[in-house]
Specification:
Blueprint (H helix, E strand, L loop, with lengths): L17 E6 L5 H9 L3 E6 L4 E2 L6 E2 L2 H8 L4 E2 L12 E5 L7 H4 L4 E5 L7 E2 L2 H7 L4 E8 L9 E8 L5 H22 L13 E2 L15 H8 L5 E4 L2 E11 L1 H7 L7 E2 L2 E3 L4 E9 L5 E2 H8 L9
Parallel strand pairs: 1-2, 1-6, 2-5, 6-7, 8-11
Antiparallel strand pairs: 3-4, 7-9, 9-10, 12-13, 13-16, 14-15, 15-16, 16-17
Length: 306
């Protein structure tokens, strides 16, 4: 028989005084700054090790480490240090590692998760919400528990997605999550509520998934372009499509019966509907208006993308 897992530490209901902060990328910087500005004692910041920069020996810190040093906060790359400073609570925002159960048994932790759990548990909740065409998303302040994003939820805030791309939606979610975190910790955490509903998994987005397949619908392809890394090929070279809209009206109707992948100016025929390319980036060149690219490339009759 395997050894029983240790019981997890319980988050304090009174406002925590001393915190450990765990985070890595840019989106984890605003919550850290807000906690410090609100007067919380951030006794330690834990983040990933410095990355090698280029081919030399120089390294660069994570955005969270850079912000912590600017704020005069101690920094560690060792997760075991979280339990050594007498903290009341750990705060996790896009840390990038699973927290072991033995650490959680010694220090309760909360996490800002950028979805309305249990929808989109996993590494890419914002991207998956956009790709799925979700009309709403949000943030949850949840307890960190064994398993991937399975913890009970202390509080949540819902947002309408609208015309957001990945950058604008992330910005709005980080703002909402930061406000929620500071408000809830300042007031003292209420007992969390278990997640309810069917979970969906937000797997990391690979490059292959970002390829624009013209046999798919214009709506699906437009959602892919909102992630900022969508691509196709033209004459054997990669062409990034950085911005696009679903075309409507007479101009779209005139090319809707062409073969998927066909171009008429910046209008791309798809398996269902027409996509108008707005901003593209040819391989090895700068981003440019799609109309300028078409004028330079001069696609021949019958020549297709992808």
């Amino acid at each position: 028989m395997s050894d029983p897992q240790p019981a997890l530490a319980v988050a304090p209901t009174n406002p925590p005084r001393r915190l450990v902060y765990l985070g890595t990328p840019d989106m984890a910087v605003p919550p850290l700054r807000a906690l410090v500005a609100a007067g919380f004692d951030v006794g330690l910041v834990i983040t990933r090790i410095d990355k090698r920069r280029g081919r030399g020996s120089a390294t660069s810190p994570s955005p969270v480490k850079a912000a912590a040093l600017e704020l005069g906060l101690p920094v560690s790359h060792d997760l075991a240090d979280a339990t050594e400073i007498g903290a009341d609570l750990g705060v996790v925002v896009a840390y990038g590692r699973i927290i072991p159960v033995d650490v959680l048994a010694k220090l309760a932790m909360v996490n800002i998760h950028f979805s309305l759990l249990p929808r989109w548990r996993g590494a890419a909740p914002v991207e998956r919400a956009l790709l799925a065409g979700d009309e709403t998303t949000g943030v949850c302040l949840m307890e960190v528990a064994e398993g991937l994003d399975t913890g009970a939820v202390f509080a949540r805030r819902e947002l309408t997605i609208g015309d957001d791309d990945l950058g604008t939606l992330r910005h709005r979610l980080v703002e909402a999550g930061t406000d929620l975190l500071v408000e809830e910790l300042t007031a003292g955490l209420r007992p969390p509520v278990p997640q309810e509903g069917e979970p969906t998994h937000a797997a990391k987005i690979g490059s292959d998934e970002l390829e624009l397949d013209p046999s798919r619908s214009a709506d699906e392809l437009q959602r892919l372009t909102r992630l900022g890394r969508a691509w196709t090929t033209f004459r054997g070279k990669r062409l990034k499509v950085l911005e696009a809209v679903v075309a409507r009206g007479e101009a779209a109707a005139a090319v809707d019966t062409a073969e998927p992948g066909s171009l008429d100016g910046p209008l791309l025929t798809t398996g269902d509907g027409v996509l108008e390319l707005v901003v593209v980036q040819p391989e090895g060149k700068r981003a440019m208006a799609a109309g300028d690219w078409v004028n330079g490339a001069q696609p021949r009759p019958g020549e297709r993308l992808g």
